[in-house]
Specification:
Layout: E1 22-30, E2 36-44, E3 50-56, H1 61-75, H2 85-97, H3 107-121, H4 132-139
Antiparallel strand pairs: 1-2, 2-3
């Protein structure tokens, strides 16, 4: 067969405002009992704000869609969520600052507290030493209100976690 020449790939323009593009990825760890759990991490590419960390023994596609729908209702719907270096950097911070520091009996409370600390109290060099919340407020200065981290969510509590 003769191969057809592909059109050259055009790189996506970088996101320039909050909620224009989200990154998402999964991490996994184990409870003190040895039982595995996973997390779905969603980060705004521009502000680096962690919008959600969903924790469960299993994260099927339907649950991921529910999380994204919940975030879209709270923050507006972005373009297609992507997997990129921003989420990998976040995952490293999450593993070093939270997962590697704890033996979990029940991880949801600890992880949600870490997410608030990350968004509100941890300046990032990539944001000019601003916290993700400060970056979001600065980027949204022209909007009526700055995006705020969503509060602790009423999580579905499977009996296994």
């Amino acid at each position: 067969r003769k191969r057809l020449a592909r059109e050259p790939r055009v790189p996506m323009p970088p996101a320039s405002r909050p909620n224009e593009c989200w990154s998402m990825d999964f991490t996994h760890d184990a409870l003190e009992s040895g039982r595995a759990f996973r997390t779905l991490n969603v980060v705004d590419v521009v502000t680096r704000m962690c919008l959600a960390i969903e924790v469960a023994a299993s994260l099927p596609a339907a649950r991921v869609v529910r999380v994204l729908d919940r975030l879209a209702a709270a923050h507006g719907r972005p373009g297609t969520p992507t997997d990129n270096p921003f989420i990998e950097s976040f995952n490293d911070r999450f593993r070093d600052g939270c997962l590697n520091q704890q033996w979990f009996g029940g991880p949801r409370f600890t992880i949600e507290n870490w997410r608030f600390d990350y968004n509100l109290d941890r300046p990032l060099i990539s944001l000019g030493s601003l916290t993700p919340c400060e970056s979001a407020a600065q980027a949204s200065a022209g909007l009526r209100s700055a995006p705020r981290p969503t509060g602790p969510l009423k999580l579905e509590e499977p009996a296994t976690l």
